[in-house]
């Protein structure tokens, strides 16, 4: 296992890595709307989704990959009523690339954010 760590995404706020590479697969930890400096983006769902995807992109790039290599995402939403707005930003960022995805509503997320996303990435 190789640990992925970049200053271009927020540092882990617990005992976990930003990402772990095993073979040619990268598994990212769930990212929330923290900026790389650790401050919270407490904007609306669109703003938080952009921040989360930016954090994920930084981790993926630090591992030598790109968003186009994401094979699976899991999206955790505080409120499924935010699905359409989150999905619009998600579609803008991923473009024509459409990884497999699960989306679930959860009771609460760290720092009371609106969205958390994790990815699985095929690096080669």
């Amino acid at each position: 296992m190789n640990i992925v760590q970049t200053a271009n995404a927020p540092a882990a706020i617990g005992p976990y890595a930003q990402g772990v590479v095993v073979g040619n697969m990268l598994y990212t930890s769930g990212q929330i709307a923290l900026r790389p400096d650790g401050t919270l983006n407490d904007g609306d769902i669109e703003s938080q989704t952009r921040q989360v995807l930016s954090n994920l992109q930084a981790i993926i790039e630090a591992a030598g990959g790109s968003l186009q290599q994401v094979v699976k995402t899991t999206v955790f939403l505080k409120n499924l009523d935010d699905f359409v707005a989150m999905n619009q930003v998600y579609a803008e960022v991923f473009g024509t690339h459409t990884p497999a995805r699960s989306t679930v509503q959860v009771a609460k997320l760290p720092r009371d954010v609106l969205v958390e996303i994790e990815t699985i990435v095929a690096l080669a």
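The two ends are 16 Å apart (CA to CA). Strands lie at 2-4, 19-22, 25-28, 70-77, 100-105, 115-122.
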